[in-house]
């Protein structure tokens, strides 16, 4: 189970930090999973935002959020380590969407999944609204 939090209403130029809490996934720990953030704006398809490998070594971003958003996850040496995050800075009106956390089992710390259909574990989403 994945549960997102941290969404809300923010003015353009502001910041939000989204969190994704994982529990009950198959496999022993959350570090067996690569994580992705996706978003879906009204009337649009869900799109990839950012992804991170199982131990956090590798990340990828959509061009539209590069240099503004940062994906991260709990240090694999920490306890617990069942959280992932999306720090969103310099928010724009077009960032308004429902943001979803997704996770998929991965063997490699070099692997970041960017395709929606790769992920089989999804949260319910959290609304982010950016106002002028």
Summarize this structure briefly:
The protein contains no helices and eleven strands.
Q: Kindly provide the radius of gyration, computed on alpha-carbon positions and rounded to a whole number of angstroms.
A: 14 Å
First CA to last CA: what distance? 34 Å
The description of the largest β-sheet is: 7 strands, mixed
Shape: globular
Number of strands: 11
Question: What string gives the helices and strands in order?
Answer: EEEEEEEEEEE
Q: What is the residue-averaged pLDDT?
A: 93
Beta-strand content estimate: over 45%
Helix coverage percent of residues?
Answer: under 10%
Explain what you see:
It is a single chain. The chain is mainly β and 132 residues long. The chain is 0% helix and 45% strand. It contains no helices and eleven strands. It has strands at residues 2-5, 8-11, 16-22, 33-40, 47-52, 59-61, 69-73, 83-88, 97-105, 121-122, 126-131. Strands 2, 4, 5, 6, 9, 10 and 11 form a seven-stranded mixed beta sheet that branches. A four-stranded antiparallel beta sheet has the order 1-3-8-7, with no helix packed on it. A hairpin with a 6-residue loop joins strand 4 (33-40) and strand 5 (47-52).
